[in-house]
Amino acid sequence: MTEKLILGGKEFTSRLIIGTGKFASAQDLKKACEASGAQIATMAVKRVDFKGGQDDIIAPLKEAGVTFMPNTSGARDAREAVFAAQLAREALGTDWVKVEVHPDQKYLLPDPVETYLACKTLCEQGFKVFAYIPADPVLCRRLEEVGVAAVMPLGAPIGSARGLETLPFLKIIIEESHVPVIVDAGIGAPSEAAQALELGASAVMVNTAIAAAADPLLMARAFNLACEAGRMAFEAGLALKVSTARATSPMEAFISEAMA
Q1: Could you report the per-residue pLDDT of 166-186, keeping only the tens digit for each?
Q2: What are phi and psi of 17, to 5 degrees?
Q3: What is the CA angle 226-174-135, rounded to 5?
Q4: How confident is the model over 77-113, as pLDDT tens digits?
Q5: Options 31, 62, 98, 128, the catalytic residue
Q6: What are phi and psi of 2, to 5 degrees?
Q7: Does the active-site annotation cover 241?
């Protein structure tokens, strides 16, 4: 039995967080969520029907019994992100919020300055803040200082399924952070989720790799097993570090030398 995950004062057995976009139907979302074993799901505030609270996102997630992590996707600056978080707290009764600020609509890369400002304000207002950010160890440290519940550095651009392209920086963040590290965005295969957890990440967030798979239900099960295996490997203690299984890139060599 692996150690349980503690996020925002709550205890979870699964280390997979599921996204809710791109599913063909509400039933597909519900079935994939159940097959994945995920106990947390994130959804964009702008996509939720707050009037009735019963739509293609909220209803299936309630049936699956997952914890809501509303996100501020679509916010272009800190002000818009704070407003979205306040709206979600009032409508859904949760103080959890994943802060996403990305003014660039092409690549959806997070704005580090506006994200920091939004997180600082929301922490002061009592939110449990989960910060979606570039894989920047210095920014992670600053966010820890303002009181975020977790940092969520990207592995690669959202929806790209390109894997852990920021691996050298993820390693530093995981080693240096005193809050949970959730690898978010870019994970395209169960093996990549397992690798992130083998490194010591607290959890991973996956959407496109499951929702866009030829068989989302089967892929959800695959991610479930991969996350369990990755965490077990970390707790067991790898005989060889994951980094030795692949060639060292020039960037990794530079960072290793600088950190020595």
Answers
A1: 999 999 999 999 999 999 988
A2: -105, 130
A3: 95
A4: 999 999 999 999 988 889 999 999 998 877 888 999 9
A5: 98
A6: -80, 160
A7: no
